[in-house]
Amino acid sequence: MLNIAFHSIYAHELPEGHRFPMLKYELLPEQLIREGICEKQNFFEPEKMLDLTPILKTHDPEYVYDLLNITLSQKAARKIGFPLSEVLIEREIIIADGTIKCCDYALKNGIAMNIAGGTHHAFTNKGEAFCMFNDQAIGANYLLEKKLAKRILIIDLDVHQGNGTAEIFKNNPNVFTFSMHGKNNYPFKKETSDLDIELDDGISDEAYLSILKETLPKLIKTHQPDFIFYLSGVDVLATDKLGKLGLTINGCKERDRFVLKTCKTNIIPVVCSMGGGYSADIKIIIEAHANTFRLAQDLFF
């Protein structure tokens, strides 16, 4: 069964001005159930972790303390972009717990999905761009700590570089970070992933997919991961307000098909986090994200 992390802290509890991008987290489950792609039992609700050990394996204790107590400096809080609140911190912890639980489901079933997540701009000791805790990094460290995986590949195909993820794992040979992102987009001062591929503005479906299909099989052959995290942001679309690439809905779907099929063919468990998506038309965002879930269901079950 396809297991999907879904939590109930959504747009109506966020600061005004930040609600529209978050509507997808409410609408996407409704769309998947309406289509019959998923049923209610496919969804599970993660928790606010009582034991913060998994987070503290990834983030500095002082930073975690400052977030939990809303004592982060104003300068550090401005970089995050949200006015900090207990609700927002709780939401980030719940997202991280969802990705951890997805790891266990993926080991059992081959794949699991977090309907949120992809908070790849969170560093060891700071947050940026609406990211406070790095859910995929936390999940990777959980797997390594529990000896459930030995070599992990993080595939980050969001339009923005996974700068926080790159920093967190820069000295960890057990985690290979691969980010394929817009060259002329945030973050303008990029970190160094194990492999960064910078893409020109307006890149077409054909060119994008050609690069991905040339690169990913080689990475798997060389790195030989036994677990994969996939950040499947749909801000690669030409319609995206914050992206500068040129992919169509179909091109984005073929991207997801190739990544998920590669995981399935190589028998490597995969956890997907949704990442960004900021097209002006919410229907486009929902359709692009829904394709990832449709493909997961078709390919794995």
Word description of this protein:
This is Histone deacetylase. It comes from Aurantibacter aestuarii. Pfam families: Hist_deacetyl. The model has no long low-confidence stretch (mean pLDDT 93). The chain has helices at residues 19-22, 24-35, 53-56, 61-68, 74-80, 86-109, 135-145, 163-168, 205-223, 249-265, 282-300; strands at residues 3-5, 43-44, 111-114, 152-156, 175-182, 195-199, 227-231, 270-273. Strands 2-1-3-8-7-4-5-6 form an eight-stranded parallel beta sheet, sandwiched between helices. The protein has one domain (3-300): Histone deacetylase domain (Arginase, Chain A, 3-Layer(aba) Sandwich). The termini are close together. The chain is α/β, with parallel strands linked by helices and 301 residues long. The chain contains eleven helices and eight strands. Helix 6 crosses helix 7 and helix 10 (249-265) packs parallel to helix 11.
